[in-house]
Amino acid sequence: MNYITWDINPILVSLGPLKVHWYGLLFALGFIIGFQIMQWIFQREHKNIEDLDKLLWFLLIGVIVGARLAHVIFYDPSYYFNNPIKILKIWEGGLASHGGAIGAMIGLYLFKRSKEYSYLWLLDRLAIPTALLATFIRTGNLFNSEIVGIPTTVPWAVIFERVDALPRHPTQVYEALSYLFIFIVLFWLYKTTKIKDKAGMLFGILLSFVFIARLLIEFVKSKQEAYYSELWLNTGQLLSIPFILMGLLLIILAIRKKG
């Protein structure tokens, strides 16, 4: 079969020692567009837009630090502890969504301490651009030819020439499309229904949907952790379960809450 061949250079532009990676560009674009969405939400709900500048920095630092540390600790601790300078090179890829979620929640909590916002109100609104950011990040993984799937013969298989010559599941595309769908659903629910008035509902939907998708796609994803495990579920799946349960709990509590 004539499979799709993928051999895109992960570096978009080289200007002497300065290199612009597709991954870094897409990561930045995700935050920029997400910031525009939050501006729209704040204007719509008559909130102080000036607070968004501070919120952006708390989230940016929280997401990057949390996602990077989770990747280092849970997926390849030996490599990074032996090459600590590599921990700083986030533009080369290697951000764990589980750590990013925790980092974002911590950053949001620190921001909330100095502002009069409900924590769940902020989480619900940020759920919308977060799903879009996840879409951009997984697209960045595609340009890096990383987080590839297991070998397969499905018609849409992709040969990642920077990895090997085997046709594989394009799991980055699976995840990116899943997160894009979740973003569309969350945006539609927020704009056209009163579900946003049930505290925790939108954030619960984000957590449960994103990590259910992650858990299922992991079954066709190549091994990411750099160590052997005899468990039936891999590291990504095990880390997803608490987030799924948290999301379902928030949805149940939001539905049961009256008024």
Provide a descriptive summary of the structure in words.
It contains eight helices and five strands, in the order E-E-E-H-H-H-H-H-E-E-H-H-H. By secondary structure, it is mainly α. The protein has one domain (4-256). The strands form two sheets. Strands 1-4-5 form a three-stranded mixed beta sheet, with no helix packed on it. Strand 2 and strand 3 form a beta hairpin. Helix 5 packs antiparallel against helix 6, helix 5 runs parallel beside helix 7 and helix 7 runs antiparallel to helix 8. It is globular, with a radius of gyration of 19 Å. The termini are far apart. The relative contact order is 0.13.
The largest β sheet comes out as:
3 strands, mixed
- The number of helices is 8
- SSE topology string: EEEHHHHHEEHHH
Strand order of the largest sheet: 1-4-5
